[in-house]
Amino acid sequence: IIVVLILLGIFLTLFFLRNNSEKTVVTHKAATNISKKNDKIADLTIKQAAGLAIVYAHLRYEDDQSWSEIYQAANNGELEVDRYLKYQFDNYTVTPQNNQALYIVNKEAYLIFTNQQTPMQGKIILGNDQQKLETTNVHMIYKYVKKQGKLAVAKAISQKMHLETQMATQQESQSKQNS
Hints:
By secondary structure, the chain is of the alpha+beta class. Helices cover 50% and strands 21% of the residues. The chain has helices spanning 2-25, 28-38, 46-60, 65-75, 138-147, 151-160, 170-178; strands spanning 80-84, 87-88, 93-94, 101-105, 109-113, 123-128, 132-137, 162-168. The two termini are 26 Å apart.
C-alpha cells in the first residue's frame, strides 16, 4: 500500500509538472491540431490500449500461434492479462526497462507499455513466448486496426478482458494455477 501511495504521489507530481510545462510551450494552433488528430484515442485506458494491441498482434502476426490463441480466447471472454516486474517463459525472459509496464497475456505473449498512465503518449512492445516482435505506438496500432475494420472487436475484447494492474510475481501466479 505504501508503494502504491508513493507511486501515486510521483504520478500526480509528474502529471502537474507536465501540464504546466505544456501550457507554456504548446501554441493554441498546435494543440488544436493534436487534439483533432488524436481525439478518438487520446484518452484510451490501459485496458482499451491492450485490447487494440491484441487485435493488432493477431492481424499483423497471423502465423504466430501464441497471438492466434490469445485472439480466440479473447473473443470467447477467456483472456487474462497480468502485470509483472519481469517474466520467465520457457526459454526467454522479459524484463521491461525503468517505468515500463509489462503485461503477460494468457501466459503466452506479452505487451510492454512505455507510458502506462497515458498509453497514447508512449509505445507498445509486442512479443510472444520466444521473442520480441515489434515496438510501435498506439496511434499506429489504432490506424491499422481501424483500416482492417476491427475497432469494434478491439472494444469488445477490452470490455471482456480481465486486466490486473497490481504487480504479481511469477511464483504467485504459478502457485494459483497449481491449486
